[in-house]
Every structure is written in structure tokens, then in C-alpha cells.
Design goal:
Number of strands: 12
CATH class of one domain: Alpha Beta
Radius of gyration: 16 Å
Order of helices and strands: EHEEEEHEHEHEEEEE
Bound molecules: zinc ion
Helix content: 10-25%
Strand content: 25-35%
Largest sheet: 6 strands, parallel
Oligomer: single chain
Length: 199
Amino acid sequence: MHLTPSNSGWIEVICGSMFSGKTEELIRRLKRAQIARQRVQVFKPRLDRRYDEVHVVSHSLQKLVSEPIDGADELLEKVLPQTQVVGIDEVQFLGPGIVPAAQTLANRGLRVICAGLDQDYRGHPFEPMPSLLAVAEFIDKELAICVVCGNPANKSQRIVDVPGRVVVGGLGEYEPRCRRCFVPVPEPTETEEQPALFK
Ligand SMILES: [Zn+2]
């Protein structure tokens, strides 16, 4: 349990690998806020259509109604004046603008809870997560369990051969691995990455 300020906004980040329970933890916090009758809005990148277009859904199929957004500008447009708590899932897909946007909301007095991957499938820091972690008041790093050996796992091993950093997937495309069992994928060619999505 965090000690939270009573007269200010703040940023919470829930990070970790795939299958570490980030979305479940986000949903848990948001449901507690709803129980307390706080006004909550939930967002996720439009890109993430794995389970449902208008819900935030964890791999364990807990869900919460959410609004799809393409980036930080749309987030700021959609946050209503009466909203007290903003939850954002898969925040790593929203580009660098999400960091100042989260700061704007927190500075306005909102509680901003962001969940996302802190490393990509190569094990590299996944911007904007490192920047978001730097400016957040509260950080939790969730761990999965390595499917190979049972150690705590903080890597997402891609087990299908598809180019590009952004392959949205679940079990079947990725599995959690520990540091020892993670097999780094070869570095990308110049044409492989697709940053245009997030400009
Ligand atoms: Zn392992």
C-alpha cells in the first residue's frame, strides 16, 4: 500500500514482461477506485485489439470498459473535466508524447496509472516506458515465471518469426523467460522497425 498525497495528482507505473500480471494489477487498482466512487476513465492504444476493442482485458480475461486512443493528443482530448483517475494499458505503444501528457494530467490533480512493457522482445528498454518510469511517483515491476526453468522472468521471448517491434500477441507468440533462458533475437535491419506508427 502506497502513502498517497491528498491534495495533488501523481503518476503510477506498473511495468514488467508479458504474462507478469500488469493488466490485472491495473484493473485491480481501477476497480478499487470505482468502488470508492471516484470518476475513472480507462484508455488503451487502438492498436491493441487482441481480445476486445473497447475493454481492457488481461490474459486471465478480467476486463474493464476502455476507450481506444491513437496517441497522447487524443488522450488529453478525451479526459473529461470531472475525471479523477486515468488508467492507461499498453502504454508503451503510445509514443513519447504520452510522458508529457501524463505529467499534464498529474499536474492537474489526477491520479494517472499506466501499465506497460518495460522491455521489447529483444530485451531493450521500450520507450517511452523508461522516461515514464523516471517521472513517476510510484513504480511497480511485476515478474512472470519462466516457462523453461521456473525462475522469476522479466523478459518476453518471441517464439514466432515475425519482423517488427510491434507484434501484439499473447501465448503462442510470446512466452515469459528469465535472464538465463532468454534467447536474444538478432538485431534488426534498417527496414525492419516501424517507428512511423508513433510519430
Ligand atoms: Zn529460465
